[in-house]
């Protein structure tokens, strides 16, 4: 074999060796990059942005159970990147997803917000593996839906219970009247009681309908400038006879000429409910005061009585539907347990709030606070301001 052939063989061997080494180096680099990708916990910016766009709470969990990333909507879960997933129910869900190597079915769980928190939430959660070491956790809080559903069920149950009483009483009184048909005095007595029960049934039905309307509507349908003087006057006139029968004096005081935006009819009913309650729970010979005060931002209407007061334990619940702090007295006075609930929802619809101060045997004060508005322009004043505005435009 001559030197030329040897050179060619050496060259071929060198090329083959070089190509082999290059391939080995390339494969080594690719294997290293793949290993780094598998071990890396950094998420692509696009994925992070996508997770933040999801309304549900989302978190990325690594194989050790530590939180890698949390979406902005997941703050209520109390998760912190770099720390472990605290809720054992969610840890089990993530573990199941890793074991399957895919997504788990949605599960309804009750979890705590944090390890030491007493706040529990009802959630629907599912987990999905998105890499060898990463699992995506999606959690939807359905606690509010559960609360609303419970409120609906309680409302139906309470309404059915409340309606049973007058309906049952009317049925019994009708039977009693039939049995006493030959006794005119007894018939008149039963007829009077039946009329009272029918009136109570009508009142209860009407208040249930009003409360349902307030809760169902997202906003008021008839809105205008409402004079507080007229609201107070209408509420007092509506319950003047009841006050005189109970020997309770109605006293009006405070600022005048104040206005709010809203529905006069709803506000009269709300204030009337407070006045009616104050009269019903006041002793004979006492007074019920309606005071009005205006600030730069709000109008406050306070109804104060000298009645039996409300225990502190009951003050947080008096605005609940059908709740009665004094069951026996409510029955005697014909209370439905809906008046204060209507007040609360009516005031909330106007962007306001209701405050309560009360002490047993010292009386109670319910204060309606509503956003204030400027008095509407009427008559000559309105025309004067319009002319002034027109002159300003002409001058410009």
Q: What would CATH call the class of the largest domain?
A: Alpha Beta
What count of domains describes the coordinates?
3
Mean pLDDT: 77
Instruction: Quickly give the structural class.
Output: alpha+beta
Instruction: Give the oligomeric state.
Output: single chain
- Total helices: the number is 12
Number of strands: 12
CATH topology of the largest domain: Heat Shock Protein 90
| Corresponding CATH architecture of the largest domain | 2-Layer Sandwich
Instruction: Tell me the major beta sheet.
Output: 7 strands, mixed
Order of helices and strands: HHEEHEEEHHEHHEEHEEHHHEEH
Measured distance between first and last alpha carbons: 110 Å
Q: Helicity level, as a percent range? A: 40-55%
Overall geometry comes to elongated
| Poorly predicted spans | 36-40, 327-334, 379-396
Tell me briefly what this model is.
This protein is 51% helix and 20% strand.
Describe the protein:
It is found in: Cell membrane. The chain is α+β, with helices and mostly antiparallel strands. The protein has helices at residues 3-39, 45-53, 88-100, 143-179, 184-216, 228-238, 240-245, 264-280, 312-315, 327-333, 339-349, 379-395, and strands at residues 57-62, 67-70, 107-112, 120-129, 134-141, 224-227, 249-254, 259-262, 287-294, 298-304, 353-359, 363-373. The chain contains 12 helices and 12 strands. Strands 6, 7, 8, 9, 10, 11 and 12 form a 7-stranded mixed β-sheet that branches. A 5-stranded antiparallel β-sheet has the order 2-1-5-4-3, sandwiched between helices. The radius of gyration is 36 Å and the shape is elongated. The termini are far apart.
């Amino acid at each position: 074999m001559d030197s030329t052939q040897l050179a060619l063989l050496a060259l071929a061997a060198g090329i083959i060796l070089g190509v082999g080494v290059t391939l080995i180096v390339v494969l080594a680099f690719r294997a290293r990059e793949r290993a780094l990708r598998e071990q890396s916990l950094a998420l692509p910016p696009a994925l992070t942005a996508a997770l933040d766009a999801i309304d549900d709470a989302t978190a990325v969990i690594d194989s050790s159970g530590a939180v890698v990333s949390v979406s902005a909507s997941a703050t209520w879960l109390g998760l912190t990147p770099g720390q472990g997933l605290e809720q054992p129910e969610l840890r089990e869900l993530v573990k199941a997803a890793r074991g399957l190597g895919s997504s788990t079915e949605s599960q309804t769980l009750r979890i705590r917000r944090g390890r030491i928190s007493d706040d529990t939430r009802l959630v629907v959660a599912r987990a999905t593996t998105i890499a060898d070491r990463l699992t995506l956790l999606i959690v939807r809080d359905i606690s509010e839906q559960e609360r609303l559903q419970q409120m609906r069920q309680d409302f139906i149950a309470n309404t059915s219970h409340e309606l049973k009483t007058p309906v049952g009483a009317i049925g019994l009184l009708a039977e009693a009247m039939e049995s006493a048909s030959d006794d005119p005095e007894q018939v008149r007595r039963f007829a009077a009681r039946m009329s009272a029960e029918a009136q109570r049934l009508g009142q209860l039905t009407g208040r249930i309908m009003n409360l349902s309307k307030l809760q169902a509507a997202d906003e008021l349908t008839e809105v205008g400038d409402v004079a507080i003087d007229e609201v107070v006057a209408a509420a007092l006139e509506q319950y003047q006879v009841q006050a005189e029968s109970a020997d309770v004096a109605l006293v009006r005081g405070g600022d005048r000429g104040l206005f709010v935006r809203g529905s006069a009819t709803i506000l009269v009913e709300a204030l009337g409910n407070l006045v009616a309650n104050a009269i019903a729970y006041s002793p004979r010979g006492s007074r019920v005061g309606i005071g009005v005060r205006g600030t730069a931002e709000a109008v406050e209407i306070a109804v104060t009585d000298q009645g039996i007061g409300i225990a502190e334990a009951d003050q947080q619940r008096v605005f609940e539907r059908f709740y009665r702090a004094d069951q026996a007295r409510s029955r005697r006075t014909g209370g439905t347990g809906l008046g204060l609930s209507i007040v609360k929802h009516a005031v909330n619809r106007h962007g306001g709030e209701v405050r309560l101060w009360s002490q047993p045997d010292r009386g109670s004060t319910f204060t309606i606070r509503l956003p204030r508005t400027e008095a509407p322009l009427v008559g000559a004043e309105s025309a004067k301001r319009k002319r002034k505005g027109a002159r300003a435009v002409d001058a410009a």
